[in-house]
Amino acid sequence: MFQRTLRTSAAALFLLLTAACGASAEAESSSSSSSSSSDLSSVTLRVGATGWKSEEAILQYAGLDDTPYKVKWNLFQGGDLQLQAIRAGALDLASSSEIPPVFAAADGEPNFRVVAVQRAATLNQEVVVPKGSKVTDIAGLKGGKVGYVQNTTAHYFLYELLKQAGLKWSDIDAKPLLPNDGLAALNGGGIDAFASYGTSITTAHQQGATTVGSGADILSGNFLWSARDSVLKSPAQKAAVADLIARITRAYAYVRDGHEDGFAKITADATHQPLAQARKDLLDAQAQRPTEARPVGDDTIASQQKVADAFTELGALKEKLDVKSFWTTALDAELRKAL
């Protein structure tokens, strides 16, 4: 199982690198032809999505997908893979939690910058155990095999939950797994618990899993938009990025303004869950923290620094990382105007 995960990750990265080679000419063409922010017709943004293409779906639902530029949505199992794609030149814009950019920047000179923050709910970020498990809390994981999605929110909140329970990372047999592989390992008895997020947690509960720990109050709710450096050098691409992020904020506002049921139906169909559960999850998420974008601020940089320091403490980062080195306010003015 775990060898298969490594092979899957390697294959995914190979495909990303291959895609980057084919996409580089397109990116250069787009950049050179988009000489001003008013000329968006020649811009194509390659944008990442995790779990399912919820951003694309909500823009369509709210009637805000009529962009004057083209958007190619690319689906990934995690924000960490989106940042790998950014590094490989296969994406222009990635959406992730605070964690993936930390590891992408620590892996060498970053070719991206965090340009905006999307505030969103931290629900469905959990450590779950399979049906019939005798484990009832995090302390019960001592000595057990625990799967987690590496370099993501799951990695971070699992570490923090262990500390809260008086355990060290070395007190568990930690197994890095992709969401789908983690679910298979959980149901097949390969691991005793799984730390994950989003649709994988929803599916785990549908299969009888129970929650033994939650990252809801550990995570900041800051989800980051990271753009390739080449995007920031093009006025037209910058304008398109600001416009797209603002449209997503307006789309969520539209849903909250009495249009929850329709988007809950779309979500239920896409995630294969009961409509009532999808509606409840949507309402709970928007009640906890309405999804909306904001420009870069000192507080958002400080929040990610806290996360990076925790990974240094854990030993996942070899040395302290100054996160503000890969943040920029270059999009702030255009984003404020677009919002």
Automatic annotation (TrEMBL):
<feature type="domain" description="Solute-binding protein family 3/N-terminal">
    <location>
        <begin position="44"/>
        <end position="256"/>
    </location>
</feature>
<dbReference type="InterPro" id="IPR001638">
    <property type="entry name" value="Solute-binding_3/MltF_N"/>
</dbReference>
<comment type="similarity">
    <text>Belongs to the bacterial solute-binding protein SsuA/TauA family.</text>
</comment>
<feature type="signal peptide">
    <location>
        <begin position="1"/>
        <end position="25"/>
    </location>
</feature>
<keyword id="KW-0732">Signal</keyword>
<protein>
    <submittedName>
        <fullName>ABC transporter substrate-binding protein</fullName>
    </submittedName>
</protein>
<dbReference type="InterPro" id="IPR015168">
    <property type="entry name" value="SsuA/THI5"/>
</dbReference>
<dbReference type="Pfam" id="PF09084">
    <property type="entry name" value="NMT1"/>
</dbReference>
